Every structure is written in structure tokens, then in C-alpha cells.
Amino acid sequence: VMFNSVFSFGIDAAAMFLVIGVYFLHNSRSYWIAGLLFGLAGITRLLSLIPTAVILILAFFSDKKNFFKLSSGFLAVFLAVNAVFFAVAGNDYLASAYKYHFQKTFGAKENVKEYVDIVKLNWLLFSSAFLLAFAGNKKPMLFFAAISVIYLLFLTALKKIFGFYFLIAFPFLAVIGAYSIVNMAKSMPKKLRIIALGAFTLIFIWNLSSDVLFLEKIGFSGFERGKEISSFVALNSDEETMLFGDDSAVPLLALQTGKRIALDFVDTNDQVFISGIKDLNVLLDGLKGKNLLFIVRGRQGISYFREVREFLSQNCEFLSQFHDKLEGNYLVYKCK
Q1: Is 275 helix (H, G, I), strand (E, B) or coil?
Q2: In whole angstroms, what is the distance from residue 201 CA to residue 195 CA?
Q3: What is the pTM of this model?
């Protein structure tokens, strides 16, 4: 819930910095500013480093004179910010920001499904970009095509992918798609061009309407049982009671109720523990004897682990269960 409300902000901001950087690179020839923007994208979301790397490589082979300005701007921001965080947090920063991503478990089946679902959901964007293969003058789009193709191929090599990872490629695919449609339309006879553009406009309106209806019914439906769980937490706790549990809901509940999260440990998704970044047994030992409400979601997230279920049965009392249509069952335990 909390995750669904904030997860895409960083990726959207990174895509924004990338696109603005490309504008300064190609339209204004401001290589230093473009590099700074690519650096901002890199520190916002690491996934933006892939398009940035492609851009830097292309710049190195096509314009070595200005490659230094571009790369210097990028490194000035990226290295400076990372150096500050490393100075403050040391190896803990490197572990959470970099090492963690390399130690995730590989989910081939889930990745393929996610990839296919994203292509199906955004079929208009992908199909319009594919039209570049039939466009007359492809040269102006080769830069955008190289970024898009390499990035989409890179995603297939990741151990675990999520739908929002694709957002980085969407602006580049949109540019390719728009160019391809206009290029092909110009080569058509006037009457056929009007018919083709009219048909495309109707398809676009239909697709947009479907997306709006989906967001209205599903995407913006909110946390169905959120208020009930929040009220339940308030009624079954005192000033000293802390919260802990599934990261899809606990951060939101902590904000709503003014409760602290035990051990200040917010990110409890299963990969944090499977990757070895955090020791689950040490975490559970630290929770023993604390006055807290432990909230889990079925057998997802942190409750995926047998150790957590054993901890709850031995140290906590089951209080209530709340069923949410989208999120599943939330179980609330009282631990002391």
C-alpha cells in the first residue's frame, strides 16, 4: 500500500532527468549540463545508469572532443553524492545501494510473466516503436533505438524485475513511435494518410480510456481496509507500543497512528533476508520482549519465512485478521 503509493516516484524522476539531459545534449549542445542531469538520474535510480552508459559510449565514439565535458558532468554529481553517503554510512551504504541488487534470487518464471504483462499492457507504445522498422529515414532515431533496445535487453538479465523498471525506456520508445508514425504517414497518399491517422487516433483514445478505467477501478482504489486496521491498531495499543511487519502496510499505519516502527526497520521484503543483506534471526532476536503489534500479510513478504511464523506462534498473540480484495489477508499479532 505504502509501497504502491511511492515506488515509482524515483523512477519517474530519473526518467525526467534523462530526457532533459538528452534535450540539452542534442538540442542545446550543452554537454556539461547534460552530464549533470545524467548524474542526477543516476543517483535517483541506478537503472538509469544503463541508458547513461549507452549515451556516454556513443558520445565517446562519435564526439570525443565533447565526451570529456559530458562524462565530467556526470561523474561530478554521481561520485560526489555517493562519496557523501559512503562517508556517512560506510559499507552499510554500499551493501544496501549496490551489493543488495546483485544478491537477489533469480526468478525466471516471474520475470518472463512480468515482461510479457508489461508489453501487453503497453502494446500501443511498443508496437508504434516497432514501426521504425518500416520507416523511411531511420538515422535520426538510431540513438533512441540503441538506448531502448540495450535497456530492454538488460532487463532480461536481471535476477528480479518489476513493472516500473520499464518506465526508464518509455520516453525513448515514445519518441521512436511518434517519429515512425509521422514518417510513415508522410509517405502515404493523402486519403490513405487521413484514414490511417484517423484509425490510429481512435485506437489511441480507446487505449487511453481503458487505462483510465483501470486506474479508476484498481490503481486508485486505495487501501480498502486501511482505516479499519488503523483504528484497530489505535484501540489495541498504548503510547509505548511499536509497529513491525509487512512493508506494504506498516509504514502507512505508523504514519496514521503516530507509532514508531520497531528497530527503525522498515524494508522487510523477503529479498532483504534471502540476499543475506540482513540476518533474519538477529532481527527476530532484537524484537523479543518488545511491546509491539506485528502485522503480516498471509505468507508474503516477511511472513514468507518459517522463522517468522515460529516467532509469532511462540512470542505473540493473534488478535485479528483483515481481508483486503487487492492486498490479501492482513494478520495482526500482539507481542511482548
Answers
A1: coil
A2: 10
A3: 0.82
Q: Do 290 and 260 touch, CB atoms closer than 8 A?
A: no
Mean pLDDT, range 304-325, rounded to an integer: 93
Contact by Cβ (8 Å): 296, 244: no
Residue spans of alpha helices (H) in 187-225: 190-214
The candidate with the shortest Cα–Cα distance to 98, out of 161, 26, 43, 144, is 43
Q: Of the candidates 158, 43, 164, 45, which has an alpha carbon nearest to the alpha carbon of residue 101?
A: 158
Which pLDDT tens digit goes with each residue over 115-169?
999 999 899 999 999 999 998 889 999 999 999 999 999 999 888 888 899 999 9
Q: In what order do the strands lie in the sheet with 328-335?
A: 242-245, 292-297, 328-335, 316-324
Q: Look at residues 71, 3, 1, 49 and name the one whose alpha carbon lies nearest to residue 223.
A: 1
Give, in degrees to the nearest 5, the angle at Cα 1 between 166 and 311. 115
Residue 332's SS3 state is: strand
Residues 6+ apart with CB under 8 A from 224: 324, 325, 326, 327
Eight-class DSSP state of 106 = P
Show the DSSP H helices in the chain as ranges: 2-6, 9-23, 31-44, 49-62, 64-89, 91-94, 100-102, 108-121, 123-130, 142-157, 170-186, 190-214, 226-235, 250-257, 270-274, 280-287, 306-315
pLDDT of residue 232 exceeding 60:
yes
Burial class (CB within 10 angstroms; exposed 0-12, middle 13-18, buried 19+) of 296: buried
